Amino acid sequence: MNHYTVGMAGHIDHGKTTLTKALTNIETDRLKEEKERSISIELGYAPLKLTDEMEVSLIDVPGHERFIRQMIAGVAGIDLVMLVVAADEGVMPQTREHIDILRLLGIENGIIVVTKMTRVDDEMREIVELDIREAIEGTFLEKSRLYFVDSLSSMGIDDLKKGIASELQGRPSRDAGGAFRLPIDQVFTIHGQGTVVRGTVYEGVVNEGDVLDLLPKRIPVRARQLQVHHQSRMNVRAGQRVAINVGGVAKEEIKRGDVLVASGHYETTQTIDVGLMTVENLLFPLKQRSAIKLHIGTAEVYGKIVFFDRNELIDGNERIVCQIRLDEPIVTRRGDRFILRRPTPMETIGGGIVIDPHGEKYRFGEQTIEMLEQKMDATPIERLQQLLLDHKSLSLKDASKELNMTEVEMKELVNEGEQTYQLPTGEITSEKVVRSLKESFQMELERYHKDYPFRIGIKKAEMVQSYTHTYPKRLLEWLLVEGHKQGWFVISGPFAALPSHIPHAPKQWEKRVEHVLTSIKNEGLQVTPIAQHLAAQQLPIVLHEEVNHYLYQQELLYQIDEKLSIHREPFREAVTKLKAETEEVFTLKEAKDSTGLSRKYLVPFLEKLDKLGLTIRQEQERKWRVDEVENWLGNKS
Q1: Domain check: are 563 and 618 in the same one?
Q2: Dihedral sign computed on CA atoms, order 373, 374, 380, 386
Q3: Per the database record, which ranges form the Tr-type G domain (predicted)?
Q4: How would you label 366-395 residue by residue, b for 16+ Cβ within 10 Å and e otherwise?
């Protein structure tokens, strides 16, 4: 089953909604105002049954100038467009603007449907056809076939259906590779069900039960139920029109333009580098840092345009590279198409492609222009590096799909490049990603060692968890292992540290910690609570736990119960003496005679031997684990 989205475009009242009903038997005007005024205000959707191998969603796009933003949201991401022109009116202003928008959005496939044919004679039909051919000359629609229909009488509808099927036949449906992304164009609630969002899946696959992120607010949600045209599905893929019942978020927290994405795979941005193609006839010059309105996916965001080679854009029909700085964050990636409009007076400025979704501040001048053009015309290896910067790590299969390459070509590209790492899982990442993450880890460890100098290091699990919102977990875990091999980090059990770090008492507390150790050492085996020693040296209470951890981790002290700790030297001497004075199995009384300890100290002392693995308790006796004792005493000598 291949999945396609077919959109309609055209001037108001040229019969798009009536044509949709004729093709699908579904009325897409749902709102009371739409029915009263007989115009479409919101996007309309309907399933179009063509063949058993095709699942097609038909999008009815509003034609009125006031609703141009809905139109842009509707046609973004479609596979085929039907340009609708009424036979009794011909090409109108909105027809031309829609053609411009379709061209700027990179739509490449289309057909033309002439409606209301019962209202005109043969002569008028010829005039309309000439009018249309003139309007589409030089556009992607130039060689498109014209279909003449009348929606009310169903004249030509069957031929049109066959024509749509023919256009889609053999055309690959949208690639479902990559992480799931769904720009939202509708949000509503259903009684007893909760919040529902609708949209066309741009990328990837979503399964019922998946945990997703709602961006840009980054709210975690769960896909509780999925429907395609009111039919429940367990999963939905790129190219399909879907309604998702989302748990964990209220309707008021979502708006058109928000994006549902696979958790942890996308970031937001407010600065994008773009390649912009302007329309042929600009009404007014566009000055440096002029206010603009960006339409991308289903989002509509205000911002300003920044030029690097001019202070004013006067001529139309020009391709330039520039930057858009937005007032609100959006979700996008390299290669996404967009439309740029002027907020006032309203007009379409142009459209183009996102070169870099995370632009930076650049200097005005030719050097920046050259850099942006190089980004736009990047080589395959450069594109791969940018892809890996966006995704952090990818399987060869997903990377090849993203770059429209075969897996064999991708393997050759990876083998040729010296800037790529291959993970044990088979995924690849870039040298830039590894370097950036390594530096982040090193800075994180440096801060941690500064804040907690007593500690051996940070727990690896904590380290990984703090970065999983940006990086895949498997990449983070691999980097810790690889970093240990390369000498970037030191992994000691569950802890990670910098090679230069040695747990220590800060200079201001060093002497007091030494005095604590000395006083405990002088007490031998019959010690007073460690808290008393810490208080006697006037160490702040907030440091007590840190000092304790440090002394235990460095094995300067052995904790025998919650309050009591013995210095390592008298502890080792006691173990050595007890081992020498007893057989392989010894009793509590023999231990008491050897150590001279009362039961208060003796029992926790012996239990500590059990915990260290030096002895095994056998009812009222204990048995030495000879090899372990010799090894332990040897390591401590």
Answers
A1: yes
A2: negative
A3: 1-173
A4: eebbebbeebbebebeebbbbbbbbbbbbb
C-beta atoms surrounding 278 within 10 Å: 22
Q: In the structure encoding, which two tokens stand for residue 461, read together?
A: 């699990």
Sign of CA pseudo-dihedral 374, 378, 382, 384: positive
Task: Identify which of 204, 135, 146, 133 has the alpha carbon closest to the alpha carbon of residue 175.
Answer: 204
CATH number at residue 153: 3.40.50.300
Residues 149 and 15 in one domain: yes
Residues 137 and 282 in one domain: no
Alpha carbons 244 and 266: distance in angstroms, whole number: 19
Determine the Cα–Cα distance for residues 184 and 219; give it in Å rounded to an integer: 14
Residue 283: partners with Cβ closer than 8 Å, 6 or more residues away: 345, 347
Classify residue 102 as left (phi > 0), alpha (psi -120 to 50) or beta: alpha
Q: For the whole model, what pTM was predicted?
A: 0.60
Contact assessment for residue 42 and residue 70, using Cβ atoms and an 8 Å cutoff = yes
The tokens of 177 are what? 């590779």
Whether the Cβ atoms of residue 80 and residue 164 lie closer than 8 Å to each other: yes
What is the CATH number for 531? Answer: 1.10.10.10
Compute φ and ψ for 401, nearest 5 degrees: -65, -45
Closest to 336 (Cα-Cα) out of 407, 275, 248: 275
**Domain shared by 46 and 161, yes or no:** yes
**CA triple 597-599-600, angle to 5 deg:** 95
pLDDT tens, position by position, 594-619 = 999 888 899 899 999 999 999 999 88
Residue 98 structure tokens: 């829609």
Would the pLDDT of 186 be above 90? no
What letter represents residue 523's amino acid?
E
Q: Which domain holds residue 194?
A: 181-262
Statement to judge: residues 410 and 558 lie in one domain: no
Cα–Cα dist 439/627, whole Å: 43
Q: In this structure, is residue 379 part of a structural domain? A: no
Terminal-to-terminal C-alpha distance of the chain: 73
Contact in structure between 528 and 599 (CB atoms under 8 Å): no
Assess if residue 521 is contained within a domain. yes
